[in-house]
Amino acid sequence: xxxxxxxxxxxxxxxxxxxxxxxxxxxxxxxxxxxxxxxxxxxxxxxxxxxxxxxxxxxxxxxxxxxxxxxxxxxxxxxxxxxxxxxxxxxxxxxxxxxxxxxxxxxxxxxxxxxxxxxxxxxxxxxxxxxxxxxxxxxxxxxxxxxxxxxxxxxxxxxxxxxxxxxxxxxxxxxxxxxxxxxxxxxxxxxxxxxxxxxxxxxxxxxxxxxxxxxxxxxxxxxxxxxxxxxxxxxxxxxxxxxxxxxxxxxxxxxxxxxxxxxxxxxxxxxxxxxxxxxxxxxxxxxxxxxxxxxxxxxxxxxxxxxxxxxxxxxxxxxxxxxxxxxxxxxxxxxxxxxxxxxxxxxxxxxxxxxxxxxxxxxxxxxxxxxxxxxxxxxxxxxxxxxxxxxxxxxxxxxxxxxxxxxxxxxxxxxxxxxxxxxxxxxxxxxxxxxxxxxxxxxxxxxxxxxxxxxxxxxxxxxxxxx
Length: 467
Hints:
Helix content is 74%, strand content 0%. By secondary structure, the chain is mostly helical.
């Protein structure tokens, strides 16, 4: 068994996100860092500099602004028409389509990306590491983690010291539940490269291991060092998500609001605002934020969250509209080659047909057995009346020794409710209490159910020994 490493020593870090003024100062500094080389040389125009920066961003997995992406796509389409033999131009076009699809949640960009990237491979051959990286990135956004691993490992063989490939492989290994490989790959990535993008990737791995403070510190440094507003906003959104997961509504809302201020197209942060606003009781604002996020980035996850918020308010018809939208978005994603079976299974387990959720999620588990799938499958089995088998998957999702180690209120809630159904009242009580301790606002629907279940379980009997 691999020996678990100790968390990295904490360094003195910039205080980033809680204070808006300090973030604004980082924004100004980032602008200076970007502009100084142009001012010194006086050669390239700002437009050319932005295009070069956007090309660099999309080929290294760094978030890019939507207007800049649109301009880059237009530029690269002209290039490949004039120079169809340019493998690099095809690869950049494919990478830009990948990022455009991710930012807009429009799966129609994914076949275009695949066509461009495969054309790049055809021009240069299988040692074309830029195209291999692009295909790995495309597989990640499509949630096709076996394909992401295949393309990423092919790229690593061609260019063992290419750091961007390691970042993509971390995503692939995490999606496949291979957390040891993800940790080893992060170690190698940090030997090969440093900077905001690597810090953000490290934060994701630390979060999965339960090292919240280290994850938050890495994101703070990443946001402070980001070169462009879209990149900085993306790291602030991730910081907001960390704050939300630990139940800090106010901090989460500040992070999300700052991300949207810096990049108005940061729709994940807008959905995060909705989540935090709902938890703060600012329901009308939350509904508006969800609706705006969905209109600009129609993700099935946002439709599920908005539907559950409506349901918690007793607005059943409005909830059904969102659930119908969720189904249509999942099917549209499938047409573009994207896999949204996880969110569809989560929806079916709670609001549709639990046996159908079990079938979908079993297939997903066989294909890519990450802990998010384990949790969803366990919950679907419980909802379908198969709680004995459900507990096995709930344990996988909350196994801190062999799984990701992430501290998740929904995972703990699911395990507690399954244990309650099986008459394991001591463990059930502990896991339900853990869920509410981690994040007492984790769901507008399930928080009240967790509290009711705890009240029914009552206090542990005298002399109760933890299992």
